[in-house]
Specification:
The complex is a heterodimer of chains A (309) and B (664). Chain A has 309 residues and is mostly helical. Chain A is 69% helix and 1% strand. Chain A is built from eleven helices and one strand. Chain A is globular. Among the domains of chain B are: 274 residues, no CATH class; 52 residues. In chain B, a hairpin with a 6-residue loop joins strand 1 and strand 2. In chain B, strands 1-2 form a two-stranded antiparallel ribbon. A two-stranded antiparallel ribbon of chain B has the order 4-5. Chain B has 664 residues and is mainly alpha-helical. In chain B, helix 3 packs antiparallel against helix 10 and helix 6 packs across helix 7. Chain B starts with a helix and ends with a helix. In chain B, 72% of the residues lie in helices and 5% in strands. The chains are: A mainly alpha (309), B mainly alpha (664).
Chain lengths: 309, 664
Amino acid sequence: MTLLAVVLHVVALLASPIGMVGVINRTKAIWAGRKGPPLLQFLFDLTRLLRKAPVYSHVTTPIFWIAPLVALTTALVSGLAVPLLGYAAPISFPFDFVAVAYLWGLGRVFVILAALDAGSSFEGLGASREATFGALVEPALFLCMGTLAAATGHDTFASIVHVGLGSSDRIATTAGCAIALFVVLQVESSRVPVDDPQTHLELTMIHEVMILDHSGPDLAALQYASAMKLTLLAALVAAVINPVPFQTSPAIATVTHLATMLVLALAVGCVESLVARLKLKALPQYIVVATVATFIALLATAWRLGSGG
Amino acid sequence: MTFLTLAQIAFLLGAALSLALRNNVHRAWAGVVSQLIGTTLTLVCALPVLLGDGELRATVPWSYPVESVTAHLDALGAFFLVWSLPMTLMGTLYAVGYLRPQFASRNAGVQFALLNITSFSFVLIYTLENAMVFLLGWEIAAVAAWLLVIWEYRSQKTRFAGFNYLVSTHVGFFVLVAAFMTMRSATGSMDFGSFSNFLRIPSPMRNVTFILLATSFGLKAAFFPFHTWLPRAHAAAPAHVSALMSGVIHKAGLFGLLRFTLLIGAPDAWMGWYLLAFSSLTALVGVLYTTAQRDLKRLLGYSSTENVGIAGIGFGLGYLGLSWHKPVLVALGFTGGILHILNHAVFKCLLFYAAGSIYRATHTVDLERLGGLIRKLPWTAFFFLLGGLAISGLPPLNGFVSEFLIYAGLLHAGAPSGIERALLIGTASLLALVGGASALATVRAFGVSFLGAPRDTTVHAAHDASLSMRLTMCAHAVGVVLLGVVPAVALRIVRAPAALFMGPASAPPGSAILEAAGLLEPVAWTSALLLAVFLVLLVGRWWLVRGRYTKHVTWGCGYTGTTSRMQTTGTSFSAQFASSFESVLHFQRRERLPVGFFPESPGHLDTYNVDTVERRIFEALGEGQDFSTKVVARISEEPRFAFGLGLVVLVALVVSVFVRGDVP
């Protein structure tokens, strides 16, 4: 990667979460018949939070304020390994996707610990749910990445996502992985129908309730990290379903990639406006949908490769 | 070799001194000093072998039926010696602090003597290449471990756990004897070298021997479904014994597996699949139980089962690589698996030592009664968190390094494309589930015991760990960080033992190992970047906050009557996860719920996670006959004949498969 590309990647990494959240919120506002906040509202919120002085509970320990930093660190570092602009990433090494998944795991562990640190029953509930769904979604993510690696014959994140829509026998692989990754996106970044990012009320107590006691810069770090993870996963889905192959025309492909990410933001907003949140008991089944989708993709890939096609 | 003999003499002398001296403090010192001498002497011998300076071999003539005993220190044995003995020494050091409160009332000399004997048996097992003497070392280690476990022998629970362990380990011993008898009758010798001549050639008897060996070593290393003795023994034993058993002594099982892998040379593919299936199941079942335990030491015990499963997945992959002639898979599988053994030893001992210092401070390891310990035990909390993050395989600590290698092997393009590749990818996703669940178990154990507010007012945390305990934990913590952040060190240690396995599969042995090692270089850089970004953010936060913050109560969503009893408990934390795996995770409830709007008597509710596997085994043993009669009775007259015929056909098929000897 050239220096320019790295700079572009970092700028995109820092800026696109704000755009993604803005587009999702605007979509939801339009569905609800409101005018909605400005597209950059998330940025204004973050800067406002950064100026504030935090409030800490008597019960908390340093883990409480270290956790947001760890979450943001892992989001930033993993962002450098994900092909955010579609075709390459500044950090790219064989099996980097394993490292990315475990980095997200590290961030999640610290956020959960911070939630338990406050000693509140609400936050404990959220922590328990986050740990549960985080664990259940891992197999789908790995199965998906393994399938993509097998289908493309590559082993770095930036190259495995280009499975392509080109031939008809690849469509099962692409569709299965895209569905799985979209579900993973909804689980990992706490969107409807898994979680509701708007409230921390009992029914939706997952991510928002875990960060109930955080304030000021700590809260800003947590929200920014969460939005960044959403963007990274959207970039993965977009790269998988991008109709223009990168080998032929990188410029057009990057444009379509970014457009696809925009469409995905719209899709997340639409799902959030039109679909009710699932019952917590039904969530494991919803996650199984992702696993099954990618399992079908894996079998299709194995059959195609095994038959020498 | 002279040094090894001297080391053995030092261990035995130390053991004798620990028993003979009259004062507990002197006994402790005798143990520590003799261990130190013995360990140093062994390291002088083993380190050069590990770093690739050739092998040591000596033959001692012996009387009938052994004839001669070959002591052979190769890279594999050296690898195991190089960390087993120093960690036993650390355990002895920890024991000094841990047993100190009991010095006035008990004779602690037995413990120190037995720790010396354990080290002594390690040298026997890891160097001797004769079935008879190997079994002797094996038995010494087993009995010493049993005697170490029943230190608190006045408690009936401890005696039962000890007995359970003794029986289990001997069942494994008999299976091992059976395997050795098979090989002895085939070769007419007790020497491992001649066993190899038999094991190298595919034959039906080789398949049977492999299954016997895998069963015996699996029992020793607590593979599922032979793991049931382990959580009991670990919960009952003193902390240093739990740590050594889980981290060091039971690695002998994996050593046995590896030693015989070397003797087999080129295994069949089915052996690889067999290992892979068993190990995946072991890792999964182990981690599921880990998420549900309320006894901290039982929890750690189950996580040992999980981790030997992870190492076993690596070995299974290596077997497959050997049978497919794919050097890269061999290198990744064995490097990852062997490294995971070392990593597990380091972080598991760290966690058990931390659990021990919780027990010394609060006199309980029941998660539901703990809480907020981080204030009283800051050192212990830090070490436990470090160990917990490592055991969940999170970067940048050591658990991640070995798991990364195993993932890389499972997802590598080297496997034959088609169904084999799909199966390996499936295993990788199973390993991911194991990782996620293990993270859940870690945050649960750490969060519930160390964070929040104390749950039970009757539990008083007195003081943090004593100096010797803290030093021991510190040494292990350094290992956890060093092996994780600088994987080159870890790879240097496992390079020689892993290279032994490359034999038949690779043209220039070692090039595949280097390729595997090359995968870790960017991982190390990523870890460094992670730390750098974290430091930058830390400075940024410090500048933004600049000490301006207010203290307040935890936000209770408007409710002000909160008490610490309302916090999430360990059981409720994992309840939803457990409900997805009800068939394995069975909870026993003892309850008396309050009745009516104004209950007259207070209610109570207790939940315990019971080992379903153990239960089912006992049920099947106790009611097996009834069960089979019932099943047969349910089949009506005519199909019964067909059913019987079907069984006969099935048996015939199995037999023919064995006789043909090339199970797919």
